[in-house]
Amino acid sequence: MSHADVSVIVEDRSLEEKFDPEMRFRPLRPGTAWIVAGLLFALSMFHYYTAGFGLLRETTHRGIHMAFVLGLIFLVFAARKADQDRLAPSEWWRPGGISLLDWALAATAVVASLYVPWIFNELAFRIGNPTPLDVAMGTALIVVLLEAVRRSVGWPLPLIAILLMLYAYFGPAMPGIFQHPGASWSNIVNHLYLTSQGIYGIALGVVATYVFHYVLFGVLATRVGLGKLFIDLASCLAGRYAGGPAKVSIFGSALFGMISGSSIANTVTVGSLTIPAMIRLGYPRHFAAAVESTASTGGQITPPIMGAAAFLMVEFLNVSYQTVILAAIVPALMHFFGVFMQVHFEARRSGMRGMSAEELPNPIQVLREGWQSVMPLAVLLIVLFSGFTPYLAAFWGITACVLIGTVRIPALTLGFLAAISGAIALGVLTELAFVIPVFAVVLGLMAWTWLQSELGKAKIIDLVDAFVVGAKYAIGVGAAAATVGIIVGVVTLTGVGFKISFIVTSLAAQIAQGLGEYLPAALFDLKGLTLFFTLLMTAFVCILLGCGVPTTANYIIMVTVAAPALGLLGVAPIVAHFFVFYYGVLADITPPVALAAYAGASMAGADPFKTGNTAFRLGLGKALVPFVFVYGPAMLIVTPEFTWPSFFFVVGGCMFGIVLLSAAFTGYALAPMRAWERWLAGLAALPIIAPQMTMTLIGLALAAPVLITQLMRARTLRPPVPA
Asked: Whole-angstrom Cα distance, residue 579 to residue 715?
């Protein structure tokens, strides 16, 4: 790795830490920094080893993960924001620059996290009848967990958890439908701490079993050059066309999103190249930043990695990860298509040129130098789609990253891919007789590389650093997932989720009944209007909640509360889950807390709020697509309603509607648009997008005058062909 590559990585990481609170570690003194780095590396090694050689007992695995995560949080996040960015001196009451209180909280977190795995054999007799020590340990864990999340993520999530625990305790005093018998503190701790319905529940289990491995894979794949290869390929593919760098941004973010699963990481990595290029070409700074940040939010919805919520979907719905990947393909394409069309129309309207041949990389050289970087992703997909578990696929993908990062010998790369394929065909991929020799060969190559030269040592050090950074990415989401366990636990203990669902559907029905009197019954029936207003309220709450809560936590909360409401109205579970997932992700570009947009604005030197507003406008395709697949589930492919005719009808209508809406916002389609054309195109887009034949025909009728005038004006403006 060159010095230039290292400097880019350092700069990108500093930007991530600036805008992502989960990555903002406080500066540490050398001795403490080594301890923290060692613990982070040990956490990555624990997950890497168990993914390949066998997971531990469920509660033990989750307990060890949480002990690492919570203990590290008190070492790397200060109690006050004012202390987060300054290097504290080492004193008797602050050994290593960290206060004795933080060391004590870290120790308490470790002990309380490991207590449940320690008493596991007696747990069946303790649930429902906790001892005083159980209650004390559970109380201690709840307190340190809430404080850890406050430090790493912020106030909103712990506040929601505290309010819900108060609701569980003071149930008899609650008004109306929210009243319930209440629970003693001992019963609350019992449910949240000793059962699998609370802190040690699905959310923590998914992060500890799936999410961590894929975060680590994404970091390693980027380090071995896969991210750079994707960006270069995007440049070759789209750079020469009108507004080239903006289109490179979209294609690059789509490809990079396949391995990152993070909006902010996508923005700073791809944006470090595309944002300056867009500005040089003439795009306004805020528009350049908005294009990159909007495209980058696709990272959490783009298969095969996606965000943590995708793995939670697997557990909640009891479906395979392959099913989730297939369902996510077309909606993700619609998101990028929506951004692409607005960028294309903006480039045509402004007369933006493409990148010159001198500015573009040579595709043959790009593939010659970078094709081996694709091997880890190929291995991951081959194992995953051969029916193996997601964490085993991640194990072999990570192993491939280590191999590529250590040595780049084409024969060895192809040999490793052939060995994995052969092991799958022979059914020995999980056998220790296969795993151990491959593992030993990789370790031997690492040792040989280390002894070869200083460059070899630098490669190994960079791989070790990638394992450290991968664990660093996962700390905040691990603590948030455990806290969401408290929220889910209270919901299951009190049944408040179904009460909220009933209130939402009742309110939506009242609004629908009131408006239904003024709308034609042939087009708008009561059930359809009720569903529409339920979706609107759910989307609004998702975006509002996303302003202060991470996407993963947002998804779990809304699935617990809103999915039952959608289920009551006949929406299939996987469709309801995708709906709240998409609107949770949208918060990354929705002001006032649009973290991805603000990261892009910082890189472009643009106004953050203006960037956020523009990014939200560019991301309207993502905002509309969830409504489309609720009314036309065939878009998700895996639903029972899927047929090829219905699929093409839904997708075709969605694409045409997105084109019209993009033209309306930009003011340009085939030629500049007048005000009435923009309004009519925007109005026509909505019924065309709606996957219902009558509405589509109405939309086409509205769009026809716009299309005719645009064709006529485009012919008028076209320069004459020379004789």
From this structure: 42
Asked whether residue 512 carries a pLDDT value surpassing 70, the answer given is yes
pTM: 0.87
Q: Using the 8-state DSSP alphabet, how is residue 362 labeled?
A: P
Query: What mean pLDDT, rounded, does the chain reach?
Result: 86
Residue type, 463: L
| Spatial distance between the Cα atoms of 484 and 490, rounded to a whole number of angstroms | 10
CB atoms near residue 519 (< 10 Å): 12
Higher-confidence residue: 393 or 281? 393
Instruction: Give the span between the Cα atoms of 610 and 613, in whole angstroms.
Output: 5
Find all residues with CB under 8 Å of 566, minimum gap 6, and list them.
531, 534, 535, 538, 575, 576, 579, 630
For the four alpha carbons of 564, 566, 567 and 573, in that order, the dihedral sign comes to: negative
Q: What is the pLDDT of residue 141?
A: 97
475: helix, coil or strand?
helix
Q: Could you tell me which of 655, 613, 587 has the C-alpha nearest to residue 309? A: 587
| Four-CA torsion 536, 542, 546, 552, nearest 10 degrees | -150
DSSP 131: -
The answer to whether 614 touches 246, Cβ cutoff 8 Å, is no
Instruction: Tell me the pLDDT tens digit for each residue of 490-509.
Output: 988 988 887 888 888 888 88
588/596 Cα distance (integer angstroms)? 5
Question: Where along the chain do its domains lie?
Answer: 15-202, 643-723
Using only the alpha carbons of the chain, give its radius of gyration.
26
| 132-152 vs 454-494: helix crossing angle, rounded to 10 | 120
β-bridge mates for residue 94, sequence order: 91
Whole-number Å distance between alpha carbons of 583 and 544: 10
- Does the pLDDT of residue 12 top 60, yes or no? no
Angle at 573 between CA 571 and CA 578, to 5 degrees: 95
| Collapsed DSSP state (helix, strand, coil) of residue 608 | helix
The size of the chain, in residues, is 723
